[in-house]
């Protein structure tokens, strides 16, 4: 039977799900449905579980904000986990060992991450090294530097003395402030920090000239260059911002753990990439946005919390994350046709 004009104008399920936003929303809805079904004897319905889910996803989400900027250009940043560890160690050293004030420690921690991002961006854009190789090198370098700065141990409130003993000091004011909860304990401060980072990344991508340049580079680098887009400079800025956000994440990580751990952040880049991809940002570059990444953060964050309250082993959660990344990429590929 031939289609009527009304039939042709009516959206179909396949067409609706071809949208990255629709696929991201569907994934998030599916995760929430799993939480409703596997609620761990009602634990999923407690407000504290949702607060903790957002809190635990916030550090990953900050990394995902920076990763979105880089992936939009068609690149990748494998160093964010190691840069997080370096920033955490540096912030703990400055705040605990040296007793520096918060207004110095916070920007200095961000600058440490930005410097690492600058190095990755220069090697990638100016020296024309593959992003995978350049950021892999930075991943190894930053991890080694974090261990060297920390002396191979965690930078904690047990401060080593010249005679081999330890002197215990209080937790820095900055760490206590970031690890606090507000609004009667309903929201963690680190979640607010994440939302602030997401807002900055959104403004860069959606409201600033740099964002349009990043989309152009990811869509077609040669065409962007011929159109007058400063490809090298804009690409470097994407990595600088990614590094700076990794610095913020490192400060938050140190605040939550109340120490700087040189081994922190291992594998965090995997989770950040998963959040970006599940949200719908294309790994090929040129398509995506912070709104989609926010959905990816919520999806992975809630999925991890649901598995946690149901006592699913961490090894199973890691394997599931890998499967989800492949499924998300395959969904993107099918959505283009």
Radius of gyration: 21 Å
Instruction: Please give the count of helices.
Output: 15
Helix and strand content put the structural class at mainly alpha
- What percentage of the residues does DSSP assign to strands (E)? under 5%
Describe the model.
- The protein has helices at residues 5-9, 13-17, 20-37, 47-72, 80-97, 102-126, 131-150, 173-178, 189-207, 209-219, 221-226, 231-257, 268-279, 290-309, 314-335; strands at 158-160, 166-168, 181-182, 187-188.
- By secondary structure, the protein is mainly alpha-helical.
- It has a single domain (43-335), classed as ABC transporter involved in vitamin B12 uptake, BtuC, CATH 1.10.3470.
- Strand 3 and strand 4 form a beta hairpin.
- Helix 4 (47-72) packs across helix 10 and helix 4 runs antiparallel to helix 12.
- It is globular, with a radius of gyration of 21 Å.
- The chain starts with a helix and ends with a helix.
- Mean pLDDT is 89; it is low at 6-16.
Keywords summarizing the entry:
about 70% helix, 4 strands, about 325 residues, two-stranded antiparallel sheet, ABC transporter involved in vitamin B12 uptake, BtuC
């Amino acid at each position: 039977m031939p289609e009527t004009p009304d039939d042709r104008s009516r959206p179909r399920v396949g067409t609706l799900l071809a949208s990255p936003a629709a696929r991201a929303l569907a994934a998030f809805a599916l995760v929430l449905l799993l939480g409703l079904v596997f609620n761990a004897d009602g634990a999923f319905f407690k407000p504290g579980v949702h607060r903790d889910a957002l809190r635990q996803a916030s550090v990953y989400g900050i990394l995902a904000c920076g990763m979105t900027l880089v992936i939009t250009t068609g690149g990748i940043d494998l160093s964010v986990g190691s840069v997080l560890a370096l920033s955490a160690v540096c912030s703990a050293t400055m705040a605990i060992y040296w007793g520096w004030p918060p207004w110095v420690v916070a920007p200095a921690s961000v600058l440490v991450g930005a410097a690492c991002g600058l190095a990755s961006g220069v090697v990638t854009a100016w020296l024309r090294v593959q992003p995978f190789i350049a950021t892999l090198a930075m991943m190894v370098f930053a991890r080694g530097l974090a261990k060297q700065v920390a002396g191979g141990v965690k930078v904690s409130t047990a401060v080593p003395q010249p005679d081999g003993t330890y002197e215990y000091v209080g937790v820095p004011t900055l760490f206590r402030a970031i690890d606090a909860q507000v609004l009667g304990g309903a929201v963690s401060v680190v979640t607010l920090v994440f939302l602030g980072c997401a807002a900055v990344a959104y403004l860069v991508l959606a409201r600033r000239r740099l964002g349009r340049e990043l989309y152009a580079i990811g869509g077609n680098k040669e065409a962007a260059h011929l159109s007058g887009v400063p490809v090298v400079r804009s690409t470097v800025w994407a990595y600088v911002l990614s590094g700076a956000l990794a610095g913020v994440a490192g400060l938050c990580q140190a605040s939550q753990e109340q120490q700087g751990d040189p081994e922190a952040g291992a594998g965090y880049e995997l989770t950040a990439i998963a959040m970006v991809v599940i949200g719908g940002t294309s790994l090929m570059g040129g398509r995506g946005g912070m709104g989609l990444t926010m959905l990816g953060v919520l999806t992975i964050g809630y999925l991890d919390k649901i598995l946690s309250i149901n006592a699913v082993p961490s090894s199973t959660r890691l394997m599931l994350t890998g499967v989800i990344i492949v499924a998300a990429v395959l969904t993107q590929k099918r959505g283009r046709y």
